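Good morning C.,

I know you're traveling, so I'll keep this short. The sequence:
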Amino acid sequence: MKRLYLFFLMFLMQVNLYAQEIEWAKKISIPFWNPHGMLYDNSGNVYLYGSYYRNWNINDPGQVINDTVGSFIQKYSDEGELIFEKRWKLPFYIVKMIFDGDNAFYFTGCFAGSLNLNGVAFNSMGEYDGMVGKMDLNGNIYWVSTFGGGKSDFGMGISMYANSTNLLITGSVADSLFVNSQYKGSEPLPMFLGIFNLNGHNIKNKLVDFIPERIHSNRGIEITCDKNNEIFVLGDREGAHWYGDTIDGPLAGRYIIKFNENLDTLWSRYLIGPSCYNGWSNGNLVADSK
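The tokens, ready to paste straight into the viewer:
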């Protein structure tokens, strides 16, 4: 009887596995693009976004950039029909986007030089600056806020508080931090943490230099928070090397790090060392409701 029951259970599992069928699939025919993610709206439409990064020299006005270098968004119906496609030329580079659950996307990434998109003008302080912005579901940009200094700075991760009141941003800064051209501080190669409201106003920032006596890069990759507004970041941080190091502290590598609402570090947990990054990748960082 036990064997018969197990056989019947396995049969049901197989039926459930094979009951899922592919309804449609689309070939992406955009040359050189790197899709970063997919989002969907309340009507069941699917949005594919991504970008193709290339170094940009803001001191060379003769550079010719076509629309296969930069960022893109595509909208598909729930039947797989392409509704529209929009592209932004480099130096405008979207890394991560989120949906607000209503009628807008928020995004982060980097840009260079002086840009004007949909009448929204913004300027970098140096090479690349990080950015956070808002657009509607047709790709029309409402606002962009910038952060960075005289070198290359990047926005990497974006999330929204559980009560949907503010945005959380993480990334990296080379040294000095200006937010919308206002000086906020300086640290050598810190991780960037920023809080912005839904209109792009900067509320709070933190430059996290884990070991001040060591000038190595720190950067945030993914960011999220729980219902208590405690913040979790997946990122790379400086630290001790494996052998013969005078630094007394945690190893350098990729960590998950917890911050409180004031952006103070609560704890960090080592995941993997920098020598092991090749062939290893991470997915999205998600906090549950506990």
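Safe travels,
E.
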